[in-house]
Prior knowledge:
Strand content: under 5%
CATH architecture: Orthogonal Bundle
Helix content: over 70%
CATH class: Mainly Alpha
Amino acid sequence: MAIMQKKTEQKIAFTFFRSLSLVVVAILFWILGFIIYNGAGVIDWEFLTTAPSDGMTGGGIFPAIAGTLYLILGSSMVAFPLGILSAVYTSEYAGNGYIIRFIRIMTNNLSGIPSIIFGLFGMALFVNTLEFGDSIIAGSFTLGLLTLPLVIRTTEEALRAIPDTFRIGSLALGATQLQTIRRITMPMAFPNIITGLILSIGRVSGETAPILFTVAAYFLPKLPQSIFDQVMALPYHLYVIATSGTDLEATRPIAYGTALVLIIIVLLMNLLASFLRKKFRKL
């Protein structure tokens, strides 16, 4: 009798969790379907390769796409080296003392700070104090700081997942700690590190608040000439055409099209992360 009761409770629990999973998947597909239904008709070659016109009620979104890619590249150049080296230090060299535990706590707290706070900090430091102005370099540094905790945390977790027996065996064979990290630990952790890096890129591509204060332009139908120029970006462009302007009915299809392009970029980043993870695991 007790066994039958446990089986019944287990079946009820599995059914409940399975139903919750199906609800989450259904919501995801409902959102995607809504965006695709409203935005797919707008997307064509002209929409992807031309600049906006007529007060952003016509034309395309090419400067916003290019600006988003510039910011992704710039923020990656800031966050990836700093994040990976910091994670290597805290995971492989620093041990587990009070200072390192404090650093980890602060890193976790930093990852929970709202992105608009990073935007205000970036405006105060990079735009005003360092006098970069509203520019690609200011936005890149701000977004790099935003994703730095994520890069550190994912890299550190990937390194800590490697069994210590590999490190001990390498050191026993006469390799230095640096050689062990370069030839044993990092290659084994690289698939998971790559996944974390690309997921951080996905977060950068959808941020609006940090670039609002540091780099984004309302209407700039041309490509930047240097890293000290402003750019348009897909998240801010979407926000502007969906909330501002004199003819919201005319710009609403463009907003849905922009949202769909942004979703496709994030989806491609996630697919790239999955592909690279599988490829490097086979090496």
